[in-house]
Amino acid sequence: MSALPWPPWRDAWPRWRDRLLAREDVRRWAEALPLTRWIARRRARQVFDLMAGFVYSQVLLACVRLGVFERLLTEGPQTSAWLAQALNLPSDACERLLRAAGSLGLLERRSGDRHGLGPLGLPLATDAGLRALVLHHAAFYRDLDDPVALLRGTSPPGELARFWPYAGQPGRDGGAETAGAYSALMAATQPMVAAQVLQAVPLGRHRRLLDVGGGEGAFAEQAAAAAPSLQVEVFDLPDVAARARLRLEGAGLAGRSRVWAGSFLQDRLPAGADVVTLLRVVHDHDDAAVATLLRAVWQALAPGGRLLLAEPMAGTPGAHAMGDAYFGFYLLAMGQGRPRPVERLEALLREAGFQRVRRVATRQPLLVQVLVADKTGSS
Ligand SMILES: CC(C)=CCC/C(C)=C/CC/C(C)=C/C=C/C(C)=C/C=C/C=C(C)/C=C/C=C(C)/C=C/C=C(C)/C=C/CC(C)(C)O
Ligand SMILES: C[S@@+](CC[C@H](N)C(=O)[O-])C[C@H]1O[C@@H](n2cnc3c(N)ncnc32)[C@H](O)[C@@H]1O
Q: What CDD domains does the entry give (predicted)?
């Protein structure tokens, strides 16, 4: 669907508003008038939050590194003195951290001068994947040290480029240690993705699933548990595939699973699955590689089979910054790929030969959105 041309009259109101609000006297009036005061205050807070976001992230990082959330989950609310001793912090510093985390909704004051989990601390206490991402962000933020150089392409490849070797070296997983590090992060964060995907698209009617770029098999394992008669297969780069083999055998799925090593940019995918999944794979690649990948998936699918594409997408209602700001810059630092709007993914799927492409709602679109595409012809 092509976008309609932007009519010039739609610019008139923002241009008028900007000219008005650029005037110091108008801003002072806006701050003073009861009807507009709340907007002025909210804007100030929003600008401050943008400036201070890194500081908030570091408060979160300190809590995760110190294990604050897990402790409060297992031990219940505790006093500052108890926490200072448990976390090996000077009492003054501990009080400062608890106040900071409290102001951000991570912790919450309880009776008896104790501190418990706040509404935003609870997800971090219960989800090891979220904590793994917070720890991983330390590398991302180092790469963002000079965002202008990053945009101009004048900074040397940074930590994310080394963490994800297939970005920049297509088809390379960097060896067992490097592949192990990125696969472990993906496996730790897969449960929250898999829960969304399996809730949105139950797999019970399928017989054979191929998870392309399926990492160490965490999704295949969860899919097998959710659909007991499903045969699950994983295709990934060699050192990642070796981990998937071990994992699926360890999960007692040796008889119901198969693991294939190769590159979807060079090698043929195993044919015959009636459902192929691409979870958090497409956004890692530029358009030419995505075209190759989707065409390979179309060819591998059994006639009448379907592809399930799931990843965070640009332009997600209520989560625009997640796609365009967070993943836009994450993938820039990594060296390739982009978050795509759902319309662009639909177009790429149709170009690859898929006939019926539809969106399936997930409960947390910020985490992942899902497209289902049918192969109706024969291969
Ligand atoms: C019961 C009473 C009284 C009230 C109830 C009130 C109520 C309804 C509360 C709701 C409670 C609730 C269900 C809360 C749920 C919270 C959730 C689900 C929070 C989830 C947060 C998820 C976040 C912040 C996810 C962040 C994900 C990130 C940063 C992902 C990064 C991914 C990366 C880096 C992937 C890299 C892979 C690559 C290379 C891009 O391909
Ligand atoms: C971001 S991870 C996602 C892993 C998994 N799908 C998940 O959601 O947890 C991308 C995966 O694609 C794999 N990959 C990248 N390039 C590949 C290629 N050319 N051929 C096969 N797998 C590839 C990586 O090894 C990695 O396991």
A: AdoMet_MTases
